[in-house]
Amino acid sequence: VELYKKHSQIDLVLMDIKMPVMDGYSASMKIKEINSDALIIAQTAYALAGDKEKALAAGCKDYLTKPLRKSRFEEVIQRYFG
Asked: Residue 68 has what DSSP assignment?
C-alpha cells in the first residue's frame, strides 16, 4: 500500500492474499481508496471456496491461483493490456 502511494505510475498490482502484516483483501481495499481505478489481480496458493468472490468484492479485477500457469497469467494480462 505504501509503495502504491509513492508510485502513482503503477499500472498493475499482483496482490498476494496471505501476507504477514496485512492480508491482500485489506490491502486491495486500501489501494482502491487511493485509486478506485487501480488494476489489482489477486494471487494465492490458498484457493478455498469463496476466496475468489472475496477478492473480487475487495476490489480485485481478477484472481489467479498458485502455482501460476504461464498461459493463464498471459491470458489475464492480455485481457487488461491488450
From this structure: P
What pLDDT was estimated at residue 78? Answer: 96
Predicted TM-score (pTM) of this structure: 0.91
Q: For residue 45, what are the contacts with CB-CB under 8 A and spacing of at least 6?
A: 18, 65, 66, 67
Contact, 28 vs 60, CB < 8 A? yes
CA distance 57 to 40: 12
- 13: nearest Cα among 50, 75, 60, 66: 60
Distance from C-alpha of 54 to C-alpha of 44, rounded to nearest angstrom: 12
What does the pLDDT read at residue 33? 96
Place of cell 496485512: 22
